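Please produce the structure of this protein holding heme C.
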Amino acid sequence: MSFRVVAPLAAPLVLLAGLLQTACHREGDATDLYVQALTASTLPASPTNAVADDPAAAALGQRLFFDKHLSVDGTIACVSCHDPAHGFSDPRAFSVGVRGQTGARHAMPVTAVAFQSFLLWDGRADSVWAQPIKAIENPKEMDLTRVELARVVATRYGEAYEAVFGALPKLDALPDRGKPGMEAWDALPADVREDIDEVAANVGKALEAYERQLTCADTKFDRWTRGEASLTDREERGAEAFVEHHCNRCHSGPAFSDGKFHDIALPSSDPGRSAGRTLLLADDFNGAGLNSDDPIAGEAKLASVSSETATVGAFRTASLRGVGQRTFFGHASHRSTLRGFIEDVYHGRHGGRDATVGRRDPLLRGVNVPHHELDEIVAFLHTLDCPPVAPALIAH
Ligand code: HEC
Ligand code: HEC
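Below is the modeled complex.
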């Protein structure tokens, strides 16, 4: 059955008529695309971070994002793997951390993270602020321990930090390096460890305040839904195909991601969500922990995590905002072209040719993009290209 994506409409009544027309006869329809755009400019709250929308925290976060002193040997900053010129993702298949080391997953963009409930491919962070300490302490990424991090904050950011978060703890008589699992750290009194953890959490909260400004919100797609731009015929056919082939069963919401975890049967031995969820529940920096500014909200979010099913080999639905500006696709950079990825994953394989793939998510049932529509979907996805970032947001 064919249908048309409702053209951009200024008058709500006409829009409503369009919605009713398409809403009754298919499970995913053009109305969903509207929902995705209309909410893109409204950031969801981040209840566990009291300074999420504080400009002074964001300014501090911006400085931290570009600072190589956050790595053990002063060679790597957040921006080293999240390049503004590439939509804040990494143009390399695998990022390079300190001492030339590489990891096993692609560095996803930090744009549109404010719309995600769970961060990272396996969702092992339940807030944007809980994520940075994982990169900072990762021996393959920045390899700076939280004790060293607190020292960097005190020497380089003391004033800006204290203006937002209050007095820094005393840092003398601490070991050179210290994080959980290190003898020198585990030997410290609990209250000293808690003070340092608080600094690490606050670094995350400042970084979140910065990242919340990188929304990739005003794309051609958004302008189209507001009636300020028109799509080419090809882009519009792509929008129809996107809905018709059920892409928005999972790529839904303002980030074109449902924030959930699915196994789309990419070749990988990575356990994905099954490991990520265990790490999350044990994470000192999760939303139910000591450094959460709203542990009740944090606990409520974690409650759903224990009932998740089919988590082995499942990864968080990738955001499609800015997807056309990436150079690698899939959690382990499976393909280097957007068209190639869509063809590989969403053509034939699940619809018929390779129906035996056992682990795949039931929501992939019936997803089978014919060859002739691949280019149209790619054209549509390019309407989600992020506009250039305001220079003030990348000044450092
Ligand atoms: C050495 C490269 C590297 C550095 C340095 C790095 N990242 Fe990342 N980043 C990655 C990789 C790889 C992933 C995906 C990892 C995963 O899912 O396990 C990622 C994921 C993320 C995500 C998750 C986005 C999402 O949609 O869930 C955010 C946010 C992020 N990084 C922010 C930061 C910040 C802030 C810093 C600095 C404190 C930082 N990164 C430093 C490589 C890096
Ligand atoms: C069952 C849910 C589901 C459906 C349906 C689905 N996707 Fe995905 N998609 C995902 C998940 C999960 C990922 C990340 C998978 C990974 O890397 O392990 C993803 C990744 C992608 C990526 C790669 C993005 C990146 O940065 O790595 C593209 C492009 C994409 N999907 C497009 C589509 C299109 C087009 C359709 C419709 C034909 C579609 N998806 C249907 C869940 C889905």
